[in-house]
Amino acid sequence: MKKIIIIASLFSLILTSCTPRQREGWAERSKKVFGEKEQKQQVTPLNPDSFKFEKDKQELIGLETSIVKKEIIEEQLELPGEILPDPNNIASINAPISGWIRTLNANLGSMVEKGAVVAMLENPQNLGQHFELRAPLGGIVTERLVNVDEWIESGKEMLEIVNYKTLYGVIRVYPDEQRRVKLGQDVEFTSNDVSARGKISFISPTVDSITRTIEVRAEIANSQNKLKANAYATAIIFTGKKTALVIPQSALLMEEAHSVVFVKVADMFEKRVVEIGSRQKGIAEILSGVQEGEMIVSKGAYQLKNITFTSKGEEEK
């Protein structure tokens, strides 16, 4: 850069101290020198993310391509949520009288059947008279607050039983999101890699005064007890249908903080950064980066990335 400045200054000095004819010659020389420099600066370098890959090598890694196309997909609203027990499936067993606990057939964490005898109390006013306490519902004992041969006062809580076969998925939406949420919509909750679907059964008519959100609830079937209550979850509400540009999820690669794909253009491959919308049923919605009708690598993209990365590394050495 310093060299260019010195040359330019020299040309300026010469042009002010010579004849018109000499100035014309030096002007042409100046144009040639700086014109060549400008031309060199305008040369476009080769795109390092565009390369050829021989057909036999494509077959070797099992490379396959797919056409970017439009499909009708489900519109989704993804929000944080949590899994809670159904309050209708929680029962507390309280002592009906004051007395001695003579038997206790429920341990913390044990499963009890509906109607099973879980405890027996002895009435101190009438020795030999016993009161059987039966489980009002089947479920798991989540609290045991008493022990055998303990004296208990009338009305004191002894046990809590919870049935987890049905759970509540709870979502808290902001008012601008609530317009997309309706009763009866399907919603999928995922927690610790376990997913289950339910339908929205309740939308609160009020806004929470602290969080400024609206509570939305969905009932979730949990017959296998795979979902855990009181856990955080990701909730996806399916709000309708739309036409979107999609590609197979197998075509997507992560590079730093970006999603990338390989696009096949004639006999060349181009690496492109793409913006992803929703992902569902093995496909990903594309918001930008590729266009309908383009050909992308749907199988072998990871191997292709590793091969090109290794090749670049070898060239640098």
Task: Please describe what this structure looks like.
The protein is elongated and about 95 Å long. The chain has helices spanning 2-15, 20-41, 55-60, 175-178, 301-316; strands at residues 50-52, 64-67, 69-85, 90-94, 99-104, 111-112, 117-122, 130-134, 139-144, 151-152, 157-162, 166-173, 186-191, 194-203, 214-221, 231-248, 253-255, 258-265, 268-280, 283-288, 295-299. The chain is 20% helix and 46% strand. Strands 3-12-15-14-13-16 form a 6-stranded antiparallel beta barrel. It contains 5 helices and 21 strands.
Put the structure in a nutshell.
The chain has about 325 residues and is an alpha+beta fold. Helices cover about 20% and strands about 45% of the residues.
The number of helical segments is 5
The CATH topology annotation of the largest domain reads as conserved putative lor/sdh protein from methanococcus maripaludis s2 fold
Neighbour order of strands in the largest sheet: 3-12-15-14-13-16
Overall shape: elongated
Major sheet characteristics: 6 strands, antiparallel, barrel
CATH architecture group name of the largest domain = Beta Barrel
